[in-house]
Amino acid sequence: MQTRIIDRRAQGSGKSTDNRQRFMRRHRAAMQEAVRKRIQEGKIGDVVSRDEKEVRVRTGKTDEPVFQHGPGGQREFVAPGNKEFVARDTIPRPPAGSGAGKKGAPDGEGEDDFQFVLTTEEYQDIFFDGLELPNLVKRALRGEEEFWLKRAGFAREGPHSQLDLVRTLRFSKARRWALHRLRFQRQKRELEEERENLERELAGATGADIERIRERLVQLQDELDVVQRKLDAIPFLDPLDARYRRHERVPIPVHQAVMFCLMDVSGSMGEWEKEMAKRFFVLLYWFLKCSYEHVEVVFIRHHHTAKEV
After folding, report:
1. Do 242 and 274 reside in the same domain of the chain?
2. 174 and 221 inside one domain
3. Fewest beta carbons less than 10 Å away: which of 122, 183, 285, 288?
């Protein structure tokens, strides 16, 4: 048998993307619980980092439904090798929970957790899930942009569904005019009319007129062949005449998340409290501007009236 080797190195990764997405949809609740636990037990630097996140999911929460034989049932036959029962015997059902189980360890469950690696996009999607404005936060913090298709003239190549018939025929007509197709068509009509007249004269001609008319008919046929070849060289529609409607993607503004930083400047706030609040807001502002380009931060100082600074 001949060995056949298939090199798939050029295909890149991501061959099991569908299976991965299906797994995450099925166990999304367990993933959310694992992410919340990681946030509670981990550090802030680990949460906001751009690296892939490894989460731990309890093994029992990743079980999938399977088909198996039930504990009971009715049988009217005896299987080979049986030494205890005979036909028509009544066998009691086994009590519930008599099958082999996974519990019983004196120190709790003895199974390891299931480790799963989430990408930054998957981690952020689960992290922002369930917030007040999940779509706004996701799209603004993750820098997603929306586009719409705008007419951008015409192109010589494109799908047939975008073919502009009016403009295509306009270019076809201009090309045929430039190549004198109409002049050749007029010459062809004149030669055909002359040939028809000579054929009518030939029917009533006698003597030397017959030979003269026949020679002229041969000349007309040669001229008609030349004109016809020129017309065939100038098609009615040429691939160069085709014009397709062209569209380009134009970015449109998307909803952005706005963070309001409020600071009380009344007499109850001492200089130390104000300085700490300013330091916190400045650090937060730098962090958001460095990490998230599409986040707008608004600073507001208030006493009896609020004012944006």
Report:
1. no
2. yes
3. 183
Does some domain include residue 67? no
Number of domains in the chain: 3
Q: Taking the complete model, does pTM exceed 0.85, yes or no? A: no
Q: 19-52 pLDDT, tens per residue? A: 778 887 887 888 888 887 877 676 655 655 666 7
